[in-house]
Design a protein that fits this description.
Elements lengths: L2 E8 L4 E4 L12 E2 L6 E6 L2 E6 L5 E2 L4
Parallel strand pairs: 1-6, 3-5
Antiparallel strand pairs: 1-2, 1-4, 4-5
InterPro entries: C-type_lectin-like, C-type_lectin-like/link_sf, C-type_Lectin_Receptor_IMM, CTDL_fold
GO molecular function, one term: carbohydrate binding
Pfam families: Lectin_C
């Protein structure tokens, strides 16, 4: 199953951004799939994928 990880694509800046506003360090994660205007990142097993933000998946939250 895919799970949201709190990362979305900022189309104007062409960058991935965490929900707290910090930019993704692209040396840490490789995101598979196209980054589009309405893209959010999901994780499945050991890979991260770009998916449409309106897709229905569960969330992982930092406590």
């Amino acid at each position: 199953n895919y799970v949201w990880i709190g990362l979305n694509f900022t189309f104007q800046k062409r960058t991935w951004t965490w929900v707290d506003g910090s930019p993704l360090d692209s040396n840490i994660f490789l995101i598979k799939g196209p980054a589009k205007e309405n893209s959010c990142a999901t994780i499945k097993e050991n890979r991260i994928y770009s998916e449409t933000c309106s897709s229905v998946f569960k969330w992982i939250c930092q406590y």
